[in-house]
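Entry 14: structure prediction run for Large ribosomal subunit protein uL24. Input pasted below.
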Amino acid sequence: MQRIRKGDDVVVIAGKDKGRRGTVLRVLSNGKLLVQNINMVKKHQRGNPQAGEQGGIIEREAPIQASNVMLYNPATGKGDRVGYRVLEDDRKVRFFKSNNEVVDA
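Run finished. Output tokens:
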């Protein structure tokens, strides 16, 4: 089980986008994440007339290291550390360390 999953709201804690919030679009296998509108880079793309793609400079998200983001806690309004807990019905869930609130309902 991973601390940060697809669809989670995260806060960037290091790098050029420090302090910004975004939603995780994809979790990559090498410990990196794609976060919506975070770590935007310009890519020079060649056109492909057969596929109907136009060339030019496009902006897209680049992967960011998972250690540079924290899960956003709506109760406190800040990034928070995440722990694991096994409930009475043998489900393993994530919880916020600051207020012991369960992330996965």
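Notes: The mean pLDDT is 94. Will compare against the previous run tomorrow.
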